[in-house]
Amino acid sequence: MPVHRSGTTRTAMATALLAVLALLLALPGAASAADGPGKPPRGSARMGTGVAAHDGVGGVPAGPYATQTEGVDVSSHQGNVDWSALWTSGVRWAYVKATEGTYYKNPYFPQQYNGSYGIGMIRGAYHFATPDTAGGAAQADYFVDNGGGWSRDGKTLPGALDIEWNPYGAACYGKTQAGMVSWIRDFLARYKYRTGRDAVIYTATSWWRQCTGDYGGFASAHPLWIARYNTTVGELPAGWAYHTMWQYTSSGPIVGDHNRFNGAYDRVQALANG
Questions:
Q1: Where are the domains of the chain?
Q2: Is 73 exposed, middle or buried (0-12, 13-18, 19+ CB in 10 A)?
Q3: In CATH, what number does 49-273 get?
Q4: Positions of the region Disordered (predicted)?
């Protein structure tokens, strides 16, 4: 039997629903913090966020481990990381998200960055680039000022620029190919000025081709960290004859995205030492 509600009852229910909606929108990370319907809140991006959405997820790579060294990258999504478990599993290096744009700092960065160092790993920091929110030099400064620096202690890798598919909007952040190359150049130059090191570039070949026109001018100085979730690395962006690191999955067996360094442990040490 249908239930008939009075106008007063319906008004009360509508008022209550609006109050609940207002409360939800006020919560951290709520929809109001996103760039639009279906978009994640700013600050939530991590390495491979756009890669997985655009290029898909493949299998675990085959081949021997003798000339490769296992690594992991983490962000606030992993919270406080059990570094002892990762070390026991064979992970020997790590990258930790430090910043995004000029508006976000990873709240778990101290535990993740210092914890990986404390267990014995060689570790570094990465910056998730948002070229539509601030210039390259400004984002490099923000990164260095909030954990992305470098020291010659043999345990710190140079900072990494995570430049990939935009999870918040237009794939190329509203930039032309020439404009994107200019933005990346500004970031890299400022990072080198601040730290004395050339930053690592993390990207996907598909994004690099679309958004930079497959520009090859950074390959001579900047190690390539390629993202491809498949059984092989596949074709690399223009200019790079080989990759330094390979992110092969966004769902590691323990925590974080898993990677392989293209060389034995002493090559990881060499990159840290500069």
A1: 49-273
A2: buried
A3: 3.20.20.80
A4: 32-53
